[in-house]
Design a protein that fits this description.
Largest sheet: 4 strands, mixed
Strand order of the largest sheet: 3-6-4-5
Radius of gyration: 14 Å
Helix content: 10-25%
Low-confidence stretches: none
Amino acid sequence: MADAFNPPGVAVPFGAFSNAAWQPPGRVLHLAGQVGVDEDWNLVGPGDMVAQARQTLENLQAILRSVGGEMDDIVSVIVYVTEMEPLMAVHEVRKEFFSAPYPASTLVQVAALVKPEFLIEISAVAVIPDSRG
């Protein structure tokens, strides 16, 4: 798990993320942006960012598990969304997958993702401890 923190003098995060995270020893894994599709490219939750967020996080979790990793090995994420309105509900879903201290996070609103029906995409960086890798 990353040593994440929120230093004094900086606004405390409003959601399931931290302002910074130290990278622990281990192997660094860069996870490509994932979207809310199952392994057969079926969209999960058309028009529902929360459902797509859950599937997106399940995809990241599956990648991590394939190499002996866990969601708590993620040190940072970049989240791309097409609208901000469901953001707090998405943070509640993130809490199902991450525990505090949360990974560092960047959120970007975009006009569109690779397909118009995709509402959220998440990429991540994880550090898998040598003992599990």
